[in-house]
Amino acid sequence: MQILVTGGAGFIGSHLCDRLITDGHQVVCLDNFNAFYSPEIKYANLSNIINHPAFTLIEGDIRYPDDLDKCLIQNKIDIVIHLAAMAGVRPSIENPELYADVNIMGTLQVLQACQRHNVIKLIFASSSSVYGNKEGGAFKETDNVDNPISTYAATKRAGELLCYNWHYLNGLSVVCLRFFTVYGPRQRPDLAIYKFTRLIYEGKTIPVFGDGTSSRDYTYVDDTVDGVIKAMDYIVAKQCFEVYNLGESKTINLLEMIKTIESVSGKQAKLDWQPKQIGDVDYTCADITRSKEILNYNPTYSFEAGIRNFISWFEHSNRLDC
Fold this sequence. Notes:
CATH architecture of the domain at 2-182 and 220-247 and 285-299: 3-Layer(aba) Sandwich
Number of helices: 11
CATH class of the domain at 2-182 and 220-247 and 285-299: Alpha Beta
Structural class: alpha/beta
Largest sheet: 7 strands, parallel
């Protein structure tokens, strides 16, 4: 198949493009290489496939119809995997206009481009943040998601609703995937595991927000990518709108995460306790019953194994964030 991956030079996107190429697909990657973090990191992410004959890189922005048309006119795209977004809870609260513009209006442009060019299959990358601050239990796709506590979460929920609207009005088949705290090699430098690891190796203090008990359902990137591939295989034969969680269905609290990094790296962290940050949820935990039963999604990486892979990459990569 010929597949358009928006945001394909990012952390998850580049791993997905690698996998799609390995699986024998033709891949078009659209990325605007914005300055949220160093564009050089994104170029490095694509180093394994940039010269592959099955890979095409188009530098452009999902908010601009001409850039999307360039991807879809020059290539007969069978499916769009829409990952491009402004990410991050705290920055979204500081700059809500940008997040609404990229994540909502950008998604609308992607949907309109699919309609213009008769693309009838779309996978949309959503987020566990849409669940808000639940009081207990694993997060189910049927849970109420009407109470986001960050602008980022609100924009991701808006994206899901736009996708449903396009499915209802225009017959677009859509699978929305709610990602749960993805980590691993090539992780964005602003994310906690990467940031904490770098500070530990530099002998600097780690800012710990709250009391250390906040917990996340950390999902290794290969498991997430495998879930995307399974969703892609599923949607090819379906006319549908469906939502699935992609997580490990296990929680690790903040102090456990730091201790695991210490254990794997053999280094000691210095903690700097800070007040809890506005917009951060207390915990996340994916119920992946539907994903297992319908998509045959089956995450396999333990948190320690994933951290070992990340630390190995961190120690041997030519890091560009410092």
